[in-house]
Design brief:
This protein has one domain: Beta Barrel (OB fold (Dihydrolipoamide Acetyltransferase, E2P)), CATH 2.40.50. With 212 residues, it is an all-beta fold. 2% of the residues lie in helices and 31% in strands. Strands 9-16-10-13-14-15 form a 6-stranded antiparallel β-sheet, with no helix packed on it. The chain has a 4-stranded antiparallel β-sheet with strand order 7-6-5-8, with no helix packed on it. It has 1 helix and 16 strands.
Length: 212
């Protein structure tokens, strides 16, 4: 964990604390699946302002994340990057089987050059996506889909993790980071490991303008 405390020259920087991003790529390697997204804060479908006092904010580009990962694929991690639309870091992966690039949520301890798999050939390793039926009881998982062939909805924010505590032929019981127990079909997919950037809660914005 690398905390960066600013040597303040004004009171607005006095308690500012950021996290080090030295391990992340400064520029995205894949630009074909990055799209511009216009800020429509406070506006309705026709573009008229219906809620006032909504700030414009900083320009951000949207990364298309593959939350499904239920097909057979074998890829290598080409970069670890920052995503402005989420607290967790993301990883760009080149899929050898399908010959394509895609983004995925980066789990903790995933490094550039690691091989990640999904589908039938996936093993119980960090970053691999497989069905709950193949994951051993007690395993820590994230990016969990609620229904078969649906994209993942649970345990996607920074530092969160869930645990598989029970398996039967009809359901699997998973404990989320909030303590809630969920009963999910065994054919649903999940990714092994804990979501990256687990110390994001230590970051201090210190003022509304910087958050905007």
């Amino acid at each position: 964990m690398n905390l960066i405390k600013t040597k303040f020259t004004s009171l607005t920087q006095k308690k500012l604390i950021n996290l080090s991003k030295k391990k992340l790529n400064k520029t995205p390697l894949i630009k074909s699946i990055i799209i511009g997204k216009k800020n429509v804060a406070g506006r309705n479908s026709s573009g008229k302002i219906t809620v006032h006092h909504k700030g414009g904010g900083h320009k951000k580009k949207f990364r298309k994340i593959d939350f499904l990962r239920n097909t057979d694929s074998t890829g290598i991690v080409t970069s670890l990057e920052y995503d402005p639309y989420r607290t967790a870091f993301i990883a760009s992966v080149y899929d050898f089987l399908n010959r394509r690039y895609f983004f995925m949520l980066a789990p903790k301890n995933l490094n550039i050059g690691d091989v990640v798999k999904s589908g039938f050939s996936a093993e119980v390793k960090i970053g691999h996506s497989l069905t709950l039926l193949k994951i051993p009881i007690g395993g820590f998982i994230h990016n969990i889909s609620l229904r078969e062939n649906r994209k993942a909805q649970f345990t996607r924010s920074a530092g969160t993790t869930a645990q598989l505590i029970e398996k039967t032929s009809k359901y699997c019981r998973v404990v989320l980071s909030s303590g809630v127990h969920k009963f999910i079909q065994p054919t649903c997919y999940a990714t092994i490991g804990t979501v990256s950037n687990e110390f994001s809660f230590l970051k201090k914005i210190n003022k509304a303008g910087r958050n905007r």
